[in-house]
Amino acid sequence: MKLLRYGEIGRERPGLLLPDGSLRDLSQRIGDLAGDALLPERLAELARADLEALPRVEGRPRLGACVGRVGKLVAIGLNYRDHARETGAELPGEPLLFMKATSAICGPDDPLEIPPGSSETDWEVELGVVIGRRAKRVSRADALAHVAGYCAVNDVSERHWQKQRGGQWVKGKSHDSFAPLGPWLVTRDEVPDPQALRLWLDVDGERRQDGSTRDMVFGVAELVSYVSHFMTLEPGDLLSTGTPAGVGAGRVPPLFLRPGQELVLEVEGLGRQRHRTVGG
After folding, report:
1. Is 260 a domain residue?
2. pTM of the entire structure?
3. Closest residue by Cα to residue 155 from 206, 231, 98, 214
């Protein structure tokens, strides 16, 4: 299933995209795509329903983040070999974890804010992993059974704040609009191999990133297992699993975003995001 949330900011309703392209309203069946609604048994119950009988949503409403009330947004740094090379970093021996503030979450087509005083706002297309079952110290073999589904993420980063302002990376990762999610949460059954997905990103029509999840240093199952040994993952938590080469900071000379540009990105099978950059 391709699950989504639509409507005005702060008033999103749960929805579903059918194979014929029609958008259906799910609010009579679930309150939101959040928390316990993402449990495997709840998703299985939803999949058995007569989805074509659901109310049709007309027009082209705004799409919100495809997961509501995200409790934790855990991101993985330097998780693609080519990205580590372009930054001059050694491959990590263990997954490199950092957090993004959940207030950074926005919709897949919402404006992307360049913060006041920013000089190095950068892009990062990533595969997002949405947790569907409580995961505490799970094995790698069992890890994917705790996944509800997958989505596209843009791990937007202010590099100067991230690296030069002291402390952890969270400063450069958490400005409003720095974590667009969606357009869809695609359930796990529709993504048979999360390590075989192409992902790409364009800026003003120019291809900047073009990679594959097969090039991850640590795969999805290993990441879910690893993180669950440091913190309990709850339904609706999200892992953002790293980005391939092609970020602005990796270019010579570096190239960063400015207001008035267009970003388009896609993860294979998970839909496309499109953003205009605006001054914050």
Report:
1. yes
2. 0.97
3. 98
Handedness of CA 205, 66, 125, 259 (dihedral sign): positive
Given the structure tokens 């869809």, which residue do they identify? 184
CB proximity list for 112: less than 8 A, separation 6 or greater: 154, 156, 177, 178, 180, 257, 263, 275, 276, 277, 278
- Using alpha carbons, list the distances in angstroms from residue 63 to 7, 182, 200, 218, 273: 6, 8, 21, 31, 10
| Residues 225, 138 contacting (CB under 8 angstroms) | yes
The token pair that represents 182 in the structure block: 């969606």
> Residue 90: which CATH number?
3.90.850.10
- Tell whether 106 and 195 lie within a shared domain: yes
Neighbours of 252 (CB within 10 A): 6
Residue 87 pLDDT > 90, yes or no? no
Report whether 165 contacts 171 (CB < 8 A): yes
- Give pLDDT tens digits for 233-278: 999 999 999 999 999 999 999 999 999 999 999 999 999 999 999 9
Residue 29: its H or E element: none
Matching residue, tokens 């316990």? 36
Query: How much is the pLDDT for 90?
Result: 85
* Per-residue pLDDT at 26 exceeds 90: yes
167 inside domain: yes
Name residue 266's beta-bridge partners. Answer: 200, 272
What is the helix (H) or strand (E) element at residue 146, kind and residue range? none
Q: Counting runs of H as helices and runs of E as strands, what totals does the chain give? A: 5, 19
Q: Give the total number of structural domains in the chain.
A: 2
CA distances from 79 to 163, 177, 181, 204 (A): 18, 23, 19, 26
CB 145 within 8 A of CB 123: no
